[in-house]
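[RESIDUES AND BACKBONE]
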Amino acid sequence: MASKEELFLLIRRDSWREGLSVRALARKYGVHRRLVREALCSAVPTPRRTPRRHSPRLEPFKKTIDQWLLDDLEAPPKQRHTVQRILARLRQELGAEIAYSTVWDYVHRRQQEIAEAAGAAPSAGFVIRHNQPGMDAEVDFGEAWVDLAGERTKCYLFAFRLAYSGKAVHRVTASCGQEAFLDGHVHAFRTLGGIPAGQIRYDNLSPAVTRVIRKSRSREEHPRWHDFRQHYSITPFYCEPGLRGAHEKGGVEGQVGYWRRNYLTPVPRVDSLDELNDAFAAFEQAEENRRIGMRIRTIGQDFAHEAPLLLPLPGEAFETGLALTPRVDRYGMVAVRVCRYSVPVRYIGRQVHVLLRSNEVVVFHGRTEIARHSRLTTKGAERMVLDHFLEVLLAKPGALAGSEALDQARHAGTFTPAHEAFWSAAKHTLGESDGTKALVHVLLLHRHLQHRDVVAGITAALAAGACTADVVALEARKAAESEGRSPTVTVTVPLPEPVGPPELPLPSLTERRTARLPPDQRPLPALERWDQLLHHRPGRDPR
């Protein structure tokens, strides 16, 4: 079926070539004579008029809706009336019974008219930024929910994104404090293999900025952040406060939302944040095959071109953890921020060093690590390790049954059903107090024997009807030897890796100075005549 424009062209052609009359043209094309006359007068059809719908039910409320739309011009953008909200207010406040489509037609037309009549400024335009490889990057924090060890927990997603390639590095942390902020940078630099040579764009985050200088780009920086960025040669660019500065790092703003929708939906279930962060490495590797927008090359191809242009990492590490010096209370606990963590009871009353990191708390006494815990974020939360209290429980065995440390050990799975069975059998055979002491002696074996060997030893001891720690130790060693390995654990506290003291490492000035000096070409001193001093007599010249 020909369009109206094509029909007009056919009518005008036949009228010019064949000289047909209006009646003949109307009969040939099956249209009214008015349409033929319109086609002969103009080659372009008259545009069809959109009928203006009249709604008698809406008429009494139009002035009210206009006033609401006018007030919206002064309201925050995210708190302005939607069509649904206008319809709800009309029904609740004025008792109106109007269809949604009727309100939508009127509001859609009047919003633009009211804005133009009030002289509202049009939306601000944006300028596409030219990003050079290896130069600029963007950083942001976002919230994320994780089912951590079976409990819905609010965590924070750190995102570091290179502006040129779009290569992004992520890390989920238990807090958004300064230690997590610095740790995210270190992780990103190690993953990328270098540091951007240009600017890194930031919000005015409290871990970095202590005060915004009014009407300027100047900022008062946190001293620790200032030391960190000097160490890594970072050039920061601080965006404008509020919504005005969001577009200045729009790439990473969208990156946080993209990562939540694609890799944190549905809510991930993990036993620890380390497990989730290890999974992020595989997700980031898969992202390198993606193309951003209408780009020809993938993220990985652009990053391969960008990686050699990054600045090298410094040779000395920067400790991102916060160093604290609490004192161990009489319960064998140390208070860190708003949470408490257990340490071995032999350190009660002593001052210890605590290294507060983004996802863990490490406790030192001198240069020896005495405890390591996953970081807690809930105010007043406590983390206890049953092994830390065994010396006290030997003297007070009645305190074990109702202790918080035992309850946490059960939930963590370190106090197994085999331990429960041994405890029950020991109390039945030796009595309440001596049976509990026998269990404590068995728990002390975990400091020197592997956990699975002790559990196997408990099972074998129960099968033989024995309830002593000596039998459990003997059976544990047999279980290890049957598998061809040594059962002994040489450390009392499990150390994933050797850790230094919490004091920040200081560079050696002597090594730096001597490295620049020329080699010493002087001959070594001759020592042949020094033995003559041993036989020197008073009043006689040794020469």
